[in-house]
Amino acid sequence: MTTNDACEFTPPVSAPAAVSCELPGASVAVAPGRSWAGPGQQERFALLRRSRSVAIVGASSNPARASYFVATYLLSSSPYDVYFVNPMADEILGRPAYASLAELPVVPDIVDVFRKHDDLPGVAQEAVDIGAGALWLQLGSWNEEAAAIAETAGLSVVMDRCIKIEHARFHGGLHLAGFDTGVISSKRQLLSR
Question: What residue stretches are annotated with the CoA-binding domain (predicted)?
């Protein structure tokens, strides 16, 4: 296998053959009733690839919560340094929980948010205030005011997407359409540094 073989994408039969390292279907569409257009697949992939740390705001120690599931995935299947922000917890998954983003020992590359809609602009402003690189709002979270706050300050913004699903899609755990690939491996997928 040559180096180019790893990036090769075979287009549909009707399209001319081409070699590209771009992800298929990288166009960006705006959902009905929404005016903000988020980053396409290529930009999300690049964001995940260049990031080294993730702060989960609204992290929970309750295994039934989505934030707990995402946290366990990021800790076990990603190269990220993961930090938890929850003013009501002292510890989550054996790691310290911080009361706010400002109390973290590092400036996170990505602030992943599990909070109610009305809290999102405030969290966006906190992310801006500490100098985070990106604001990531989980599935079901869409707040254009929060996006405007973050983007105006130069942060990348992703809304209504799960960081766990996106990471797994781009690193072999899920098919690009979101289906389990069926690949079972004990080898940890690492991003090149």
Answer: 47-141
